[in-house]
Amino acid sequence: MLKTIINLESGKKVYFASDQHFGAPDPKESKMREEKFIRWMDEIKEDAQVLFLMGDLFDFWHEWKHVIPKGYVRVLGKIAELKDRGIHIYFFVGNHDLWMKDYLEEEIGCTVFYKKQYFEMGGKEFLLAHGDGLGPGDKGYKRMKKLFTNPVAQWFFKWLHPDIAMKVALYLSQKNKMISGEEDKAFLGEEKEFLIIYSKEKLKTQKIDYFIYGHRHLPMVLDLEQKAKYINLGDWISYFTYGVFEHDFELKTFKDGTKKNYP
């Protein structure tokens, strides 16, 4: 099992945020949420050593050879500012921005991951992933993901004019009920939550202290066996939640420029 070891400096913290879905449901509402996220990044930059962006930063993202989607200038600029301050930025590709290529790596210096990753931080073992496609069930989505990540399908899509391609993609993306959060407001129970099932199976063969995911949108910290914790980071649509790790993990809410313990 390959893992990245991060030695935390004294007084420094690791931050996690997921599922911003910028661009949805329309540019006006998205901009208000973007401004809030930027205020949060401004607040954490003083003590952040590492920032994990755990997927679906954009409601849709596609990179052509010489073109990227319009917008998101302030968000991308703030991420670049944090990177220039020496904060390590790790970006996990989600199901809405799975066509991410090398733009964030080349232009900003982020490290981009397309699959789950293992980290060791502060002597603790972490499994990190956006969460889509892991665990049992959701076969329809898994088939769709295979199609969208198929090189032939990607080749055909890139030859569409960007104006047409983005209009179609944003329409289909925003039709996804996930952006409303309605499907994620109810906890299904440990026996039906696919990421909990996946985490419990991993614990049978691996020592993991923290399982941290995006994708599910519902903020949650759940105690598992062997003193492990299962964490859903929530979203920046309804909950505006984020994770922070120094000696232990905390799930917090950002609201009106202040940090409050969740819930």
Structural summary, described in words:
The chain is an alpha/beta fold. It has one domain (12-253): Purple Acid Phosphatase, chain A, domain 2, CATH 3.60.21. The protein is 30% helix and 23% strand. It has 7 helices and 13 strands. It has helices spanning 27-44, 73-84, 103-108, 139-148, 151-158, 162-175, 194-203, and strands at residues 4-6, 13-17, 48-53, 88-92, 111-113, 117-121, 124-129, 210-213, 220-223, 229-232, 241-245, 249-255, 258-261. The strands form 2 sheets. Strands 5-4-3-2-11-12-13 form a 7-stranded mixed beta sheet, covered by helices on one side. The protein has a 6-stranded mixed beta sheet with strand order 1-6-7-8-10-9, covered by helices on one side. Helix 2 (73-84) links the parallel strand 3 and strand 4. Helix 1 runs parallel beside helix 2. The longest helix is centred in the N-terminal third of the chain and has 18 residues, at 27-44. The protein starts with a strand and ends with a strand. The model is unreliable at 177-181 and 258-263 (pLDDT under 50).
Annotate the secondary structure layout:
Layout: E1 4-6, E2 13-17, H1 27-44, E3 48-53, H2 73-84, E4 88-92, H3 103-108, E5 111-113, E6 117-121, E7 124-129, H4 139-148, H5 151-158, H6 162-175, H7 194-203, E8 210-213, E9 220-223, E10 229-232, E11 241-245, E12 249-255, E13 258-261
Parallel strand pairs: 1-6, 2-3, 3-4, 4-5, 7-8, 8-10
Antiparallel strand pairs: 2-11, 6-7, 9-10, 11-12, 12-13
Helix pairs in contact: 1-2
InterPro entries: Calcineurin-like_PHP, LpxH-like, Metallo-depent_PP-like
Domain Calcineurin-like phosphoesterase: 13-218
GO biological process, one term: lipid A biosynthetic process
